[in-house]
Design brief:
- This protein is α/β, with parallel strands linked by helices.
- The protein has a single domain, classed as 3-Layer(aba) Sandwich (Ribose 5-phosphate Isomerase B, Chain: A), CATH 3.40.1400.
- The chain is 40% helix and 16% strand.
- A six-stranded parallel sheet has the order 1-3-2-4-6-5, with helices on both faces.
- Helix 4 links the parallel strand 5 and strand 6.
């Protein structure tokens, strides 16, 4: 299913089997998901993806009916850990619950970011692979700046890789 004029929109249930060999074609794909409280901000970010021809996987929710954020944190996290997507974005009311949930998943490093600086450091020093934001606490304008910073900042590695490895060794991830 494609968004008007883009051809890059994939609903969660349609991504499986997209490429028969399981490979990606050199493009970054971003998983995005929210609960009902983050739905509006999620649609704003999806509009940005479409305007910039960024491939994404919409993991839901698809309306403002009340849902439970752990369900969507899991969908976004699994899209990253099973390599369907390189990074993920999750939104609930504050970003707190969805980030706590995602960080329970092996291989996930979710960062709740409220500023561009936090997004930069989450990528540079922590190699965060999921960005969490609050739909009730973050303006669309700020969210776009945070998202751009998150997507365009590389992990520095080195001493930071040692620290990331130590984090994962605590939980056997």
């Amino acid at each position: 299913m494609s968004a008007p004029g883009t051809g890059i929109y994939l609903k969660m249930d349609l991504i499986y089997g997209l490429f028969d060999d399981g490979s990606r074609r050199g493009e970054m794909t971003i998983a995005i998901g929210s609960d009902h409280a983050g739905f509006k901000l999620k649609t704003d970010l999806i509009e940005y993806f479409q305007q910039h021809s960024i491939k994404y996987l919409d993991c839901g929710t698809f309306d403002t009916n009340r849902v439970d954020y752990p369900d969507f944190a899991l969908k976004v996290a699994e899209a990253v850990t099973d390599h369907r997507c390189e990074k993920g974005v999750m939104i609930c009311g504050t970003g707190i619950g969805i980030s706590i949930t995602a960080n329970k998943i092996a291989g996930i490093r979710a960062a709740l970011c409220c500023s561009e600086y936090m997004a930069e450091m989450a990528r540079k020093h922590n190699d965060a692979n999921l960005l969490a934001m609050g739909g009730r606490t973050t303006s669309p304008e700020l969210a776009l700046k945070i998202l751009e910073t998150f997507l365009h900042t590389d992990f520095e590695g080195g001493r930071h890789q040692i620290r990331v490895d130590k984090i994962h060794s605590l939980t056997g991830r």
